[in-house]
Amino acid sequence: MKKVRQIFALLLLLIAAGGTYLYTQMKSGLTIKLSESQINTAMAKKFPLEKEYLLLNVTLDQPQVSLNPELDRLEVNISAQVKTPKPLAFAIGNKEIGIGKETRNQAFARIAGTIDYNPESGSFYLKDAEIVEVELNEPEAPGELQEKIRTAISFVAKQVMNRMPVYELDETQRGTKTARLLLEEIQIEDGKLLIHLKLPD
């Protein structure tokens, strides 16, 4: 009987020690290191994306992440194509008349923002995404059309990037530990994004 009690006491001691170790590990948090290449690979799977804005068809594709160490933020360069509506066509007698002309306009946009973390989904999002630059490759397009294209790209790119995860933890990184962790700090160091997660105080 004495031996059984000793074994039971030892088991309790091991469980307590294990619990203390796990708590200490969780309290110290988790640091995730991501390279530009890893983020680009994760984001590429979600593109191309196509949206409509004010009768213009906007397609975003080929996102390329750039980590800016001076500002501790993530920048995304993305190519864009904007199509104007197809021409209207109607017939008068046996003659078909078309009004307007469909055009395809190429451009690129640079979006920047900070990173936020959703513990429930284990996903990292671009937070407060802002448009840094929109550049058209169509200098011959009329000024009014150029302005509409820039507005359409800015609206769609900002809307898309504020809702889309830029990276998601895989199954081996997720679990009860990461589900309770909150974002503590983000740094850019040696060309990598360092994301520090910790337990809430």
Summarize the structure.
Helices cover 29% and strands 46% of the residues. It is an alpha+beta fold. It is elongated, with a radius of gyration of 26 Å.
Radius of gyration: 26 Å
**What portion of residues belong to β-strands?**
over 45%
- Total number of beta strands: 11
* Structural class designation: alpha+beta
CATH superfamily of the domain at 39-169: Uncharacterised protein PF07273 family, DUF1439
What is the third-level CATH name, the topology of the domain at 39-169? Answer: Bactericidal permeability-increasing protein, domain 1
Largest sheet: 6 strands, antiparallel
Lateral arrangement of strands in the main beta sheet = 2-3-4-7-8-9
CATH class of the domain at 39-169: Alpha Beta
What integer is the average pLDDT? 76
**Shape by Cα distribution:** elongated
Unreliable stretches? 4-26
How far the N terminus sits from the C terminus, by CA atoms, comes to 43 Å
Level of helix content? Answer: 25-40%
The SSE order reads HEHEEEEEEEHEHEE
Can you describe this structure?
By secondary structure, the chain is of the alpha+beta class. The protein has a domain at 39-169: Uncharacterised protein PF07273 family, DUF1439 (Bactericidal permeability-increasing protein, domain 1). It is 29% helix and 46% strand. It contains 4 helices and 11 strands; from the N terminus they run αβαβββββββαβαββ. The protein has helices spanning 2-28, 36-44, 143-161, 176-179, and strands at residues 30-35, 49-53, 56-68, 73-83, 88-92, 95-99, 104-118, 123-136, 165-168, 182-189, 192-198. The strands form 3 sheets. It has a 6-stranded antiparallel β-sheet with strand order 2-3-4-7-8-9, sandwiched between helices. Strands 1-11-10 form a 3-stranded antiparallel β-sheet. The longest helix has 27 residues, at 2-28. The protein is elongated.
